[in-house]
Amino acid sequence: MSSTTHPTALIAEDEPLLAQALQAELARAWPALQVLGVAGNGEAAMAQALALQPDVLFFDIRMPGVGGLEAAAALADVWPQDGPQGKPFPALVFVTAYDQYAVQAFEAQAVDYLLKPVQPERLQKTVAKVQLALAKRAPGAMNFEATLAQLRHLLAAPAAAPTAPSAPLRLLQASVGAAIRMVPVDEVLYFEAADKYVRVLTAEHEHLLRTPLKELLPQLDPQAFWQVHRGTVVRAEAIESVTRDEAGKLWLRLRGSPARLAVSRLYAHLFKAM
């Protein structure tokens, strides 16, 4: 918890009235909690969380641009962990309109959540749970690794009703001007999210897909393709080397590509030998 006697929090919610309502309910349920700020989108939430280093994050799941779950994962990737000033990663509470699959994912990972509109009785339970977590928590890799594992599983959870598993994708339909080029998946070295597109890199060409990476990933063979960053998926067999820089960050080199690809903390467990 913070060095002062008061725990601190940051709220990320793109609807001002809902943000005000949550802040008012928190003031009643947890008078000692200091809400340091309210962010209206995921990018602002990440910036404020890094600057303010609160004890608790209340992140709305669905916000324009970067959603709450993606914002929490990106924040975990850059959260300062070293040195005496490094604070433990904040306790996470996600706020969502009722979504059966999101709720199931939160419960499976023991991550607390609040349903909109926030009910005082439910908020009291959340406050008690967070207070207990803060009282037990201390700086250390074990707590942080547990949080990373939770975020990994939540990001991989289905956003809609699960469908019957199908055979992995074999061909990609990539845009080339006004034409469509069929690209064999076996030739792909890595995929990289870029704005509204996904860049598809082979040893000789770069193609663009209009399919978001999150939709593409379940169609790929998980043994053949590994996600190493929230925006990067690589062919495992193409990995030539993994190096660690002075800051402790992992980087990949692929056979047949000059690219140097970053590995986020979320997926560093894939390279335990490092």
What does this structure look like?
This protein has 274 residues and is of the alpha/beta class. It has 2 domains: 8-156, Response regulator (Rossmann fold, 3-Layer(aba) Sandwich), CATH 3.40.50.2300; 171-271, Beta Barrel (OB fold (Dihydrolipoamide Acetyltransferase, E2P)), CATH 2.40.50.1020. It is 30% helix and 29% strand. It has a 5-stranded parallel beta sheet, sandwiched between helices. Strand 13 and strand 14 form a beta hairpin. Helix 2 (42-52) packs parallel to helix 3 and helix 3 packs antiparallel against helix 6. It is globular and about 60 Å long. 26% of the residues are buried.
Keywords:
single chain; 274 residues; alpha/beta; Rossmann fold; OB fold (Dihydrolipoamide Acetyltransferase, E2P); five-stranded parallel sheet; five-stranded antiparallel sheet; 15 strands; 30% helix; 29% strand
CATH level 3 topology of the largest domain: Rossmann fold
**Rg from alpha-carbon coordinates:** 20 Å
User: Quick one: overall form?
Assistant: globular
Secondary structure tally: strands: 15
Portion of residues in helices? 25-40%
- Enumerate the strands of the largest sheet in spatial order, edge to edge or round the barrel: 2-1-3-4-5
Work out the count of structural domains: 2
**CATH A-level architecture of the largest domain:** 3-Layer(aba) Sandwich
| Main beta-sheet annotation | 5 strands, parallel
Give helix and strand order, one letter per element, not per position. EHEHEHEHEHHEEEEEHEEEEE
Distance linking N and C termini: 31 Å
